[in-house]
Amino acid sequence: MTLTLQGTTERLPAYAIFAGLLAAAGLPIYIHAPKFYVDEYGVGLATLGAVLFGLRLLDVVQDPILGWVSARLLAYRSILVGIGLAFMSLGMLGLFAITPPIDPLLWFALMLTVVFSSFSLLSINFYAQGVAKASYLVGDGHLHLARWRETGALLGVCLAAIVPELLSRVVSVPFLGFSLAFSLVALLAFLLMRREWINFRVKSESGFGSVMTDQLARRLLIVALLNAAPVAVTSTLFLFFVESRLQIPEFTGFLLLVFFLSAAIAAPVWGYLAEIYRPKFVLLVAMVVSIGAFGFVLALQAGDILFFALICIISGAALGADLTILPAMFAMRMSQISPTATEGFGLWSFVSKFTLAFAAVLLLPTLEYSGFQSGMINSEFSLWLLSILYSGVPCVLKLLAIVILYSTKIEE
Looking at residue 4, what is its pLDDT? Predict the structure, then answer.
């Protein structure tokens, strides 16, 4: 397989903005949507967990298929991206800004299907485009691009953490302002990236075989699965933990901003260190730091905002390495075995989102069965279980990821 480039202008800020858009879509979906439907429409936690798990099962089939389709329609990538952006914007409006015209649970499932499908299509094509783009950059192109891309993504998350609250003071309907602003940024991101989608031309095709038969690619996918699961767990439970365990719901936006801003600031630093030292070594250091910081969450009690903010700073900074170095390592491997990388990132997208199925189907029902109720006074057992799920489970999963990554031989 060969790819040809028509122009070599870097345009890396455009990649940062597009990544920020995708990340801004992810935060409301993963953090705000479940609690929003619990508080606004009285949907049960266990029921929401079942729906989210069902949608993740859809991704089991959907993401690899979207990767396969994207590889066959590479010459029409600009059109695919435009369609994906339009549907994701409509799905966001339907999810947050429109009162469900049908049963709220069914509407929740339909809108999330639209958003998830669009998100998958866009992520696969965007990260696959990055593999081709990196080969034309000076120096270590994959890490160089990753620094721009993931920093932009984390800044997008930071904005998504605070913009809904700010806009709610202007627009009375929750998340209406955010949904409208998201649609405008989606249009801007498409315009800025429009010349990138048409730059690359494919002369031949590859399939899933080159990815699944490669031992290193498989092990990196397993590491990605175990390393993304802690983020899925904490994202699913963050609002409940801050509101019920720490009892400081008024600081939710501030803590989210601290966490993701720390990641955004640290991401280019980790990328720079990975270019000097071995990416595997730098990533392992960051993963150990994450466990060391997050383990202290178990000792937190109501009102411990300063300690939790410090944990958010350290664990957020460590997350910057996860989001920068690991995708770059996988992209490096894809450039060697599958230059279009669409099938590879179809699998990568599936692995990343499958962790949310784990979080949804196990954590939310477990909390509800323990007697936990959002916004209510809960028993000490329910609060203890919430802490274990929020902190203990991610630490165990992260430790497993460290073991597998450490034992993986990577030529760097």
Answer: 43
